[in-house]
Amino acid sequence: MAVIEGSINSEERNKRNIAVLNFGTNDKTNCVSILETGLYLTEKYIGKIINSSYLYETQPEYIVLGEPNLDRRVTEEEFQNDHNGGSSGGSGSSGGSGSSGGSGNSRNSRNSRNSRNSRNSRNSRNSRNSRNSRSSRSSRSSRSSRSSRSSGNKKKNKMVEHVKDSINFLCIPHAYTKYRYSILLCLNDMLPNYKHAALGETINTLFTNYEYTFKYTHNINLKECNKRLYVLRDKIYYLKKKTHIVGILNVNYDSFSDGGLFVNPTIAVKRMFEMVNQGATVIDIGGESSAPYVVPNPSISERDLVLPVLKLFQEEWNKKEKNNVGKTISGEGVATGEKMHYTATKPIISIDTVNYDLFKECVEQNLVDILNDISACTNNPEIVRLLKRKTKYYSVVLMHKRGNPHTMDKMTQYNDLIYDIKNYLEERLNFLVLNGIPRYRILFDVGLGFAKKHDQSVKLLQHIHVYDDYPLFIGYSRKRFISHCMDQNGLTNTGTNEDAGAGTSKDADIMDDHPCNSSDDQQGKWLFQLNHMRGDKDRLLFHKNICGGLAIASYSFYKKVDLIRVHDVLETKAVLDVLAKIHQC
């Protein structure tokens, strides 16, 4: 469902008409392309979309109850009100404001004709005066332009009149607004506090009362029969149904745990395939670190780090699809010639950036599906325009943060931590929806660690349920607040990941008196090597963060977080799969 603002056959440009349109389809496979084509055509021919609801998989109440005769019919007396009008003779209220009756529109029509006649008279006089000082060529051009516009208007007016002639009765608001849960469900997303005179109550009151009455009468929760959906690329996902993994790929030199490891496009693309095979639904690629106190190298552009990786991945995936033999892909150009197993579904690609020009280039070359904007589209609000291109829309992650990497750790004062952040994200969502971005393509990220103290990040997780009505995306992987939760012990760690690598080289004796991970290590070092981590990093700290992160993965499963952004895909997938198996009905 969408709210549009526009004018059909209106000469008064300072007055706008508002309408609510309901879109639906029974084609679940192609529903996204069908509905978004409808949104595109609506904006092209009718008016600007200024609000939209979530997508829902709905079931009429008579199907829920298995009673085909339950479908209530509204009588003519019930839907008669001052806001409705007949359309006999093609003079009804089609194309008018949602709060105007048929007679009101007839007056508007007459006023419009008088206004047009008056303007045409003035334009005619101005035109004659103007022609005295113009060349005949200019006159011909002017007449041609007016003729073209007139022809276009006549064609548009003819279409409108045809629609009006086909309407026997126009009921405003919809006759079944009070009696259809699916209608109230969508309206409650967009206009919960709206009160139409013909309805007598706010939309939210009607919606809440309908839910309560139905549950009290039939002992059935209608929400469970009408499932909210969100969209990534062209796929629909059930809200709070499954926790999906977003694999992190940092292709910069500065990221706090893996900076510099994947700046080579060949190595980066190999890692992308690896994460897909390990169970990542989405790959999130970032070319600029947002870690505290990082200063980007001005001689290395984000564009030059990201685009080669995305282009190479596109080439390799296309090659895989073209040469699909035995469900393997040659590592040539990606690895070292070895065979790699793969999943049949192409991963959804997200780009972690606030850079308008970079995202624009990615969109133009069809390289990405999601914008992950840590500024919630405030760094450059114009980036919102790139989220829709004709019939194609892009999903977007809006994250809460304050300041920049140098100041955010000092900007941690909140009046109400939980609701200050929630209200901010809702305001950003409203901004995007007002600019025509479908509500079901917008995800929230509370920004753990960004302008939050360690305890504040933990508190946000404790209250993650306040986002139960929204698609939620959280990134906690390897962050400092995780180890902060753990009890301190006597272990020390003076080594680095490079030390562990040296200790586990091919020349090392695996039967050494002090093997890796041994509790008998008298030096107090944890001589294990962490995958995909910079060699100069503290292994003990990051081992705690990784293991603690798996606890958050488990917590996310139980709290029904929609997407979790992690470095350690294999380990996280194992946790989620085991939990899913345990809870399998």
From TrEMBL:
Alphabetized, the UniProt keywords read: Kinase, Transferase
Question: Could you state one GO biological process linked to this protein?
Answer: tetrahydrofolate biosynthetic process
Presence of the UniProt keyword Endoplasmic reticulum in the record: no
Q: Which residues form the Pterin-binding domain?
A: 243-577
Biased composition of type Low complexity is found at 105-151
Compositionally biased spans, kind Gly residues: 86-104
Gene Ontology cellular component?
mitochondrial envelope
Q: Where do the record's region annotations for Disordered lie?
A: 77-159
Indicate whether Transferase appears among the record's keywords: yes
Which Pfam families does the UniProt entry name for this protein? Pterin_bind (PF00809)
> What GO molecular function annotations does the UniProt record carry, in alphabetical order?
dihydropteroate synthase activity; kinase activity
By what name is this protein known?
Hydroxymethylpterin pyrophosphokinase-dihydropteroate synthetase
